[in-house]
């Protein structure tokens, strides 16, 4: 009888449970082993060390635990190691990189690894991608990473790296040798100084401790498509970035930037997302280019800004005649006016031509009265609407059942208002709904059948979050609550797990 030799084993996304069997080590001819997107638990078994021909190992998106598997150190042929989205913990061995001379991709995202990132990874000279976001790594980035001449992706987002010191980013000087580097994601850490960059496509330095000005040399990064600096302590004016014609996503929000919005930004015609909110910008908002026809435009939290197109509802500039300004925002997909200087009054009917809106955000203001009349026929007015944020205003009355006609709605966020009455049962028609939030203050009357609407939410197959606290619901939790969809967290900034 002819013996079957297994070279590739793909068991991704099969709802497998339990532990990885030790007998897997008998498949000594395996070259590729993929068990990702299952519910496997426990540690990686020691017999895996017998798979000496293995080139690809994909164990992402399970519930595996323990330290970095020691059974892999004998597998010098490995080109891919994917352990993202598990429960691995502990420090990585300082000599980790010495064991994998052929390694090209190392994915460790969203685990609980601690300690420093091993400088020995620079010895894995074939590395293309290092993806370590959402762990608990500390210390600095090894300067030796500058020797990885093939590296094009480095993602260390959301760790505890850096010391808040002036030399935290000295490793960037060494990365200048990585001529293929295109994606550098170092946001949400503790870095404390800014350096110079070039030839990059994406830069994410968000939510660190950066201070000082945005280096003017950023204007020389002509290939830059994504630039995120939000959530720091940067001051000064916006530097000249008028030559960055490929820039599509720019987020400078939550800083201390001042001065006017430079007119050269009107020439950045590739912009699809522009967020300048919560700074100290002043003067007239431009009205052409991305400021009139951008998919996402966020400038709230800058009380000294004025003018702009009518749809921004800013006060007129002192030097300009109050007049009706024509809007070209018919392609606008997201409208954010939350935290916008305590806006009062009604949501104007003039938003009705914005048929392509996917998201409306007017939370944390002082909007009064019953559910806005301008949103009453929401399904016909905004057929593409996916997210509606009305939180923390002064709305009263009942939640209209017409909201259920917005069949593309994914997130309904209306907490901390003064709505009364019941939660509409017809929300069950919204099969795409994943986040209904009706937290506080006065829904229902303490009656035994208050929670009957939960029975109908079982039709919402994508439901992941349900927030109904701080109300007046009575009765008992229905048995149907166990049939609601189970939440699973995922991130946007990571490299696709394997």
TrEMBL record:
UniProt keyword terms in alphabetical order: Cell membrane, Glycoprotein, Leucine-rich repeat, Membrane, Phosphoprotein, Repeat, Signal, Transmembrane, Transmembrane helix
InterPro entries assigned: Leu-rich_rpt, LRR_dom_sf, StomDev_PlantInt_Reg
One Pfam family per UniProt: LRR_8
Gene3D superfamilies cross-referenced by the UniProt entry: Ribonuclease Inhibitor
Transmembrane residue ranges: none
Subcellular location: Cell membrane; Membrane
Keyword Magnesium: no
Highest taxon of the lineage: Eukaryota
Membrane topology value: Single-pass membrane protein
Single GO cellular component term: plasma membrane
Name of the molecule in the record: Uncharacterized protein
Organism: Anisodus tanguticus
Lineage: Eukaryota, Viridiplantae, Streptophyta, Embryophyta, Tracheophyta
């Amino acid at each position: 009888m002819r013996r079957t030799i297994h070279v590739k084993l793909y068991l991704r996304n099969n709802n497998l449970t339990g532990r990885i069997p030790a007998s897997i080590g008998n498949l000594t001819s395996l070259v590729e082993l993929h068990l990702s997107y299952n519910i496997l638990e426990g540690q990686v078994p020691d017999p895996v060390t017998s798979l000496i021909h293995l080139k690809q190992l994909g164990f992402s998106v399970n519930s595996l635990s323990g330290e970095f598997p020691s059974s892999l150190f004998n597998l010098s042929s490995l080109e891919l190691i994917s352990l993202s989205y598990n429960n691995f913990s502990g420090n990585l061995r300082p000599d980790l990189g010495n064991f994998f001379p052929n390694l090209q991709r190392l994915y460790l995202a969203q685990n609980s690894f601690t300690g420093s990132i091993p400088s020995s990874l620079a010895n894995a000279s074939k590395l293309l991608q290092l993806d370590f976001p959402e762990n608990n790594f500390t210390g600095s980035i090894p300067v030796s990473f500058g020797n990885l001449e093939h590296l094009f992706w480095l993602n260390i987002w959301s760790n505890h790296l850096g010391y808040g010191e002036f030399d935290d980013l000295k490793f960037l000087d060494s990365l200048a040798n990585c001529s293929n580097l295109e994606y550098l994601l170092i946001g949400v850490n503790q870095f404390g100084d800014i350096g110079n960059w070039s030839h990059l496509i994406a830069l994410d330095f968000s939510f660190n401790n950066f201070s000082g000005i945005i280096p003017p040399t950023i204007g020389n990064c002509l290939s830059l498509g994504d630039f995120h600096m939000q959530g720091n302590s940067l001051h000064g004016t916006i530097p000249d970035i008028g030559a960055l014609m490929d820039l599509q996503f720019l987020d400078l929000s939550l800083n201390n930037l001042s001065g006017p919005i430079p007119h050269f930004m009107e020439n950045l015609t590739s912009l699809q997302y522009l967020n300048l909110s919560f700074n100290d910008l002043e003067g007239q908002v431009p009205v052409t280019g991305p400021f009139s026809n951008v998919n996402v435009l966020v400038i709230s939290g800058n009380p000294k800004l004025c003018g702009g197109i009518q749809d921004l509802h800013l006060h007129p500039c002192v030097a300009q005649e109050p007049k009706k300004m024509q809007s070209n925002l018919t392609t606008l997909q997201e409208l954010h006016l939350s935290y916008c200087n305590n806006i009062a009054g009604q949501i104007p009917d003039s938003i009705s031509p914005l048929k392509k809106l996917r998201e409306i955000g007017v939370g944390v203001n002082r909007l009064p009265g019953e559910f806005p009349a301008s949103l009453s026929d929401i399904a016909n007015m905004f057929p593409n609407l996916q997210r509606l944020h009305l939180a923390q205003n002064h709305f009263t009355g009942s939640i209209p059942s017409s909201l259920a006609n917005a069949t593309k709605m994914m997130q309904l966020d209306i907490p901390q208002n003064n709505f009364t009455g019941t939660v509409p049962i017809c929300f069950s028609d919204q099969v795409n709904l994943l986040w209904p939030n009706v937290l506080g203050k006065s829904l229902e009357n303490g009656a035994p059948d208050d929670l009957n609407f939960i029975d109908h939410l079982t039709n919402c197959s994508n439901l992941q979050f349900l927030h109904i606290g701080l109300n007046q619901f009575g009765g008992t939790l229905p048995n149907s609550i166990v049939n609601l969809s189970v939440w699973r967290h995922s991130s946007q900034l990571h490299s696709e797990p394997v």
